[in-house]
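Changelog excerpt

This revision adds worked examples to the README so contributors can see how folded entries look when concatenated. The first example is reproduced verbatim below.
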Amino acid sequence: MDAAGNTPEYTVSELSSALKRSIEDQFGNVRLRGEISGWKVPASGHAYLTLKDDAACIDAVMWKGQRARLAFRPEDGMEVVAIGRLTTFPGRSKYQIIVESMELAGEGALLAMLEKRKVALAAEGLFDAARKKPIPYLPERIGVITSPTGAVIRDILHRLADRFPRDVLVWPVKVQGEGAAEAVAAAVAGFNALPDRPDVLIVARGGGSIEDLWAFNEEIVVRAVAASTIPVISAVGHETDTTLVDFAADLRAPTPTAAAELAVPVRAELVATTSSLAARLDGALAKAASARGERLSLWAARLPMPAAILALKAQRFDDMGERLPRALRAALNIWQGRYDRAAEPLRGAARGRFAEARQTLTMSASRLRPHLLANASRRAERRYSEATRLFQSLDPKEVLKRGYAIVSRPGGGIIKSAREARAETSLGLRFADDETPVPVLVGARKQKPKETGDDAPKQAKLF
């Protein structure tokens, strides 16, 4: 009888299902240590990778929900311990592990990877002291990037209120797990993009393990802090914790509370220091004034008395005062003599010319006749009267009294023709006693007035 006849027959699906059950029953929960290779996350959010060692490899998949709970960002080359269950993928006839959680395989491997990243970033100059910006002494506004819940933000706000109250802008972010690094980097860039930016930033998180703080070792956060134009104070973890953000920041604080202390001075101490400096300044000014007063007194003591300096000058002044009247009288006598000598010839000539002029005037007066002067006066009066009457007849006011009027524009200027009058909307009529406005009808501006028959008025037309 053929031996093959006793062998059970399976379909491909039946065999794949049997293998799947066998593997899952025997390896339902395993811890697998290996190095990550080919880590990728497609649009679905699930992660696909390969775990390998020196001799073998196994495919792995991590669903989106489990991946979001990771405390670090997996990368190729990391040595990890994956916890999950072994299963098969019948569609490709291969087995794989469904990873439910993952942790780094020892702190030593993680620190080695952190040191490697630190060296690479330092080589780019991101940690150079020359590029670090000074922290403002008394900022008007402080930006804080941290979790909105927990003790960190409360400690910072409380410490700022105690030391020197300032305006605080809080940008809430995740500080651990999937997406934390991206959120912190976006917050730093967001503060820098604000139109009314803070004067200083504090990036803060409480203490924890190296895995808990791993988001602040991510390259995206380090580059965002290094590129910030706003000075950054890092306050991640406790005093013994160190992250790469501490090297990229402009100032490192050992704790979040210490970051608040580094951001602002103590107001009471500042007031006391200012008062002390003011008192020292007043004392220094008083001391300097006293020293200069003493020096001035010493210099003044070495000078001679004012009376001694002025005595000789006063005596000379008195002597010149006594001599001045005599000198003036003598000079006056001299000039009087010169005047008399120069005026004597002029007096004689003047007396002769006066007598001659008087004789000429007497002879002219004898030739004048009174009736001739009277006739000339009457002729002058007659010409004056005629000129007065002519002026009065030409005076516009007198013309207006006879019934005439002056036509003018509203803004000023005399209307001299009917054509000019028709171009206006209103006119002014000036009579002898007053002026009155007169509207111009639209028809009157467009049509000329018509005269009919012999009974038309003979008075001169106004327009």
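The second example, added in the same revision:
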Amino acid sequence: MQERNARIGLWLFGLYLLLYGGFVLLNAFWPESMDFMPLGGLNLAILWGFGLIVAAVVLALLYGFLCRIEVSGDAQDERRR
């Protein structure tokens, strides 16, 4: 069970790392792109930054939900083999 939870955590961390890495790369190599205002007068930097915060909360809730799901005994036994 702990291995399964760790695997889920690593996948979700990888997903967040891609989102954050995209934000950092965009700021490092194309900083002028952050001036783009796609929604309500807010620039891309603000929207992406708040998006990262929301994504972290959503991924944490998803992790908690996925770790509570019970795996049947047969599925656990097959993984151990």
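Reviewer comment on example two: Residues 2-29 form the longest helix (28 residues). The chain has a mean pLDDT of 88.
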